[in-house]
Amino acid sequence: MSASVPTVAVIVGSLRKASINKTFAGALGALAEGRLAFESVRIDDLPLYNEDLWADPPEAVARFKVQVRAADAVLFVTPEYNRGYTPAIKNVIDWGTRPRGESCWIGKPAAIVGTSPGGIGTAVAQAGLRSVVTACDMALMGAPEMYFSWKPELFDAEGRVANPDTKAFLDKWVDRYAAWIARVKA
């Protein structure tokens, strides 16, 4: 972890290999280079949250919690499923808050983004997730919110932003998020 470039634990709520939200997270990470270091957090191997499993915690849970604790900030990248955020995100949040008194989320500067082919992006999912994130005592960036409508032509074959206007828009968001992290960490 570099003192000059904050690390961001990136949690993508889609488990699909070809997820547009994974591509979107990667595109944001590429734009953030030099300002933020995005580190993808693996969540596809976390079992469904079950308090009984704390007797012998799964290795995947320990790995996830260590990675989040080591990061300077958290970015949730959520799809929208049936007007809500995904079960994968709810599961990771629940694992992160337990056992009681050992939450890996407390005080972390956080942001929520997401993309969908729909006109309002993932606005409804993000609204629901905001209340959960703040209840977990993360320092959530309230503005600017980003409801990104996915259009494949905005990205190149490697998943990087190809459209100059989109790049400028996303760059501005990255600048604001980097400033938010610095502000919270100060």
Give the topology, please.
Elements: E1 7-12, H1 20-32, E2 37-40, H2 59-70, E3 73-77, H3 87-97, E4 109-113, E5 115-116, H4 123-135, E6 139-140, E7 148-149, H5 164-185
Parallel strand pairs: 1-2, 1-3, 3-4, 4-6, 5-7
Molecular structure report:
The structure is a single chain. With 186 residues, the chain is an alpha/beta fold. It has a single domain (7-185), classed as Rossmann fold. The protein is built from 5 helices and 7 strands; from the N terminus they run E-H-E-H-E-H-E-E-H-E-E-H. Helix 1 (20-32) links the parallel strand 1 (7-12) and strand 2. The radius of gyration is 16 Å and the shape is globular. 36% of the residues are buried. The mean pLDDT is 95.
Report the order of strands and helices. EHEHEHEEHEEH
Helix content: 25-40%
Output the CATH topology.
Rossmann fold
Strand content: 5-15%
Task: Describe the main β-sheet briefly.
Answer: 5 strands, parallel
Supply the CATH architecture: 3-Layer(aba) Sandwich
Poorly predicted runs of 5 or more residues: none
**Shape descriptor:** globular
The number of E-state strands comes to: 7
* Count of structural domains: 1
Distance between the termini: 17 Å
Core attributes:
5 helices; Rossmann fold; alpha/beta; five-stranded parallel beta sheet; 186 residues; two-stranded parallel sheet
Q: What is shown here, in short?
A:
The chain has 186 residues and is an alpha/beta fold. It is built from five helices and seven strands, in the order E-H-E-H-E-H-E-E-H-E-E-H.
